[in-house]
Amino acid sequence: MLLLNISAVVFWADMEPRQDKRNEIIAIIIIGAIILIGIAYFFSKSLSTPTTPSNTASSTPINTTSSSSASSITVTSASSSSGYTIHLITAGKAPVAPSFKTPLTFSDPSVTADEQVSMQAQFAQVQTTLAANDQDFNSWIELGDLRKEAGDYTGAAADWQYVSALYSSNVVSNANLADLYTNYLHEYPQAAAAYKAAIANDPTQVYLYDDLFQLYTNQYPQPTATIVALLKQGLAANPNAAELKADLAKYQ
Fold first, then answer.
1. pLDDT given at position 93
2. 10 three-class SS
3. Has residue 75 been placed in a domain?
């Protein structure tokens, strides 16, 4: 009987570690299953959650090239050599540019050979710039200057007319055209129109009123009422303009 009891004790002692091992394995399996279920649930929620659109605004650069078939308004800024900003505003079809590749025509016999060489070098630089950006404001102004200096007044007018159409708010090309029409091409109605366009773009330029006054009283005579109205317009924008006061005093 004692031997039997000892055997039983040995049997149960031997079975107890095996039972613990089995329990550990079962526990590990249960924990692993729970983890796998949690991972599957996490991924299922991630896939089913819609992406929230970003609220960050993005900026779109303004197009600097006007398409000939564009119907929208395009605005571009350019800095003049005088230090102010000119805005290009085109709606619909852009103006047709004259060819900046047309060679200089030296019609003025007073231009020396050395001057021609210097002007050709400047012309080559202008061509390079316009080939890279065919709307460069300063280059078109300079191109007109070169053509005028060479004696090609029609070519200069075409360049500055294009700038005036492309950069309609600028003063420089309109003032250049006014001088060209007055003193070189002798097309006085066009000169008056160019002066008025320049004044409209910058009423603070006193010389424009004075030059137009000279045109109205010399090459292109106008009624007194028109002249007085011009001078009063200039003084309204420039109350301290002594030359305009002196001009107006002649009619009072």
1. 76
2. helix
3. no
